[in-house]
Every structure is written in structure tokens, then in C-alpha cells.
Amino acid sequence: MDVLVIGAGVSGLTTGICLAEAGLSVTIRTAAPPGQTTSAAAGAVWGPVRVGPPGRVLEWARTGLEVLSKLAAEPGTGVRMASGREVSRSPVKPHNWTELLTDLRECEPAELPDGFAYGLRYTAPLATMPVYLGYLSDRFAQAGGRLEIAAVTSLTELAGTAPVVVNCSGIGARALVPDPAVVPVRGQVVIAANPGIEEFLIDHDKEPPWITYMFPHGDQILLGGTNDEGNWATDPAEDITERIMAECARIDPRLRGAEILGHRVGLRPCRPEVRLEAEPLGGGVLWHNYGHGGGGVSLSWGCAAEIAAAL
């Protein structure tokens, strides 16, 4: 074994793929299978939020946009190009990464939901996470990678296990490293029957812990949500579900009475800045790749490529 990757969320899987496809022997060790990680609860449209530093994030996001756009043209990846809007009741300063979007424009008044005064329209990759995580898992296996279900409680105990260890433990890094700068930002979403909505929508007006968004995935639609910093609860709360449904239906009345099909809860691993750096571990090297906040899907290919280029 050349590389041991810790964690099988989108960052761990993508890192494993990049290293395995470069010819290295890679094992991913994870306490939970990919479908039970925080990544499974993501929306997940390209566009990193609650993450820094801005300069490095922009370059990682550029790589992510390129790769995900190509995957959207391939069948079975779970990724497609989707159009949608970010709306607010007053003008907001766009994220710096919007400069990478070729079709970004301000919404016409007729394109805005009732009560909104400003919006941006663009097209970006949108991933249906259960399908996308399955695609990543299969691609990793096809590259010769091995997935091992086992908890990791200490990084120092991994010294000598492989010449290279990559820590993609997400929120687990808070205890595993340990790194108190990593904090959970709880996200709860509802999976509902899609009444015919084809475009995504993100409402920027809500104050934390609330945020409203809707991401259509065929005959289902993912509705959110929450940005609840410091909340470790992983079970869905009924009162939050009711609020999500009410807020989304207020923006798009087609959602009134929509059938609820399921719930997902994830803990975004937020940190002032992504930690992507190497340090010695025994006679080998330990790479840290965590703290992606609300940008795991968007940044995963860029961060993985940076590690692959350094090995």
C-alpha cells in the first residue's frame, strides 16, 4: 500500500481516485460507508460557501468546475448542468467564484419570485449525491482502490501503515487531529416528490441558522435548510422539517402539500480556512485535506489534484 486515505466522503473518495489513477496503491479507511457521510446530505450545486481562503478556494473551485462539467456529459455520474437563481430582497455582493461562470447575469424582474428584488441567474454542475457517491466509489474500485470500513482514533498510530496518509476526516478532524478550529454547521434537508420544478433556487435573505434552497433531482427535489453552527445533532427535527416545507412553498406554491419522501442531516466541517498541507508522520508524510465547509463537492477535485501533483 502506497497511500492510506482516512474518510470516504466526497473529499476522501476524490483524493483516492486521483492517487489510484496516478498508479498508486490506495486504501480508503472509513468509519462509515460513503452513503452515510455528510456528503450524502449535500444539495449539491457547484459553488463553495462558508470556506476559505478566497484565493486558494477560487483555484480549487476552478478545477472542480472543469471536472464536474465534464462529468455532467457522462451518463451514470449523477452530475448534470442545471440552471437556477440566487435571490434576495436587496442586492448582495456575489461570491468571487461567480467570475468563473460564463453565463452569469442579473435576473429580470419577471424572473424573481414574489417579494424578491434582486437575483443572479447562472448554470452550474448539480450532483445527485447518492448517485454521485456511488459513481465515485465504483471509479475508485475500478482504479484498483480498496475501501475498508474501520474507525480511526489516532493519526499517530498510523505511522508506518503507508508511506503517505491523507486525512480527509471532515468533521472528525476536530477530535482526530485534534483541531478545535473545525466546527460543525448542521444542515437538515427534506427530500420531497418534485411537483415539476426544473431549476434550483437559493434564497440568501435568511439569518442563521436558517437558509432556504431547492435543488431538483428528477422526480425528487431536495429542500433546505439550516446553517446551525455548533449543533452536533444528526437526527432530523420535525419542527425544522415543517419550517423548511413552509418556507419553500412560500417561494414556490407548487410545493404546498408535496409528499415528503425522506430526510437527511449532515454536519458541514467548517474551519476559517481549508487545511491542505503536509507534515511528517514517522518516516512518511501526513497530508491534511479537511475543513471544506459548504464547499466539499466544489473543491474536492482541486484539492485532490494538488496532493497528487505533490507526490
Q: Strand percentage, roughly?
A: 25-35%
Task: Give the CA-based shape.
Answer: globular
Succession of helices and strands? EHEHEEEHEEHEEEEEHEEEH
* Number of alpha- plus pi-helical segments: 6
Task: Give unreliable regions as ranges.
Answer: none
Mean pLDDT: 97
| Percent helix | 10-25%
Structural class: alpha/beta
Multimeric state: single chain
Reported for the largest beta sheet, the result is:
9 strands, mixed
C-alpha Rg (nearest Å): 19 Å
CA-CA gap between termini: 14 Å
Number of strands: 15
Spell out the key features of this protein.
6 helices, nine-stranded mixed beta sheet, 24% helix, alpha/beta, globular, six-stranded mixed beta sheet, 311 residues
Please provide a written account of the structure.
- 24% of the residues lie in helices and 31% in strands.
- With 311 residues, it is α/β, with parallel strands linked by helices.
- Strand 9 and strand 10 form a beta hairpin.
- Helix 2 crosses helix 6.
- The longest helix is centred in the N-terminal third of the chain and has 18 residues, at 54-71.
- The model has no long low-confidence stretch (mean pLDDT 97).
Write the layout of secondary structure elements.
Elements: E1 3-6, H1 10-20, E2 26-30, H2 54-71, E3 79-88, E4 105-106, E5 118-127, H3 129-142, E6 146-149, E7 164-167, H4 173-176, E8 183-193, E9 200-203, E10 210-217, E11 220-226, E12 228-229, H5 238-251, E13 260-270, E14 275-281, E15 284-290, H6 296-310
Parallel strand pairs: 1-2, 1-7, 2-6, 3-9, 7-15
Antiparallel strand pairs: 3-5, 4-5, 8-11, 8-12, 8-13, 9-10, 10-11, 14-15
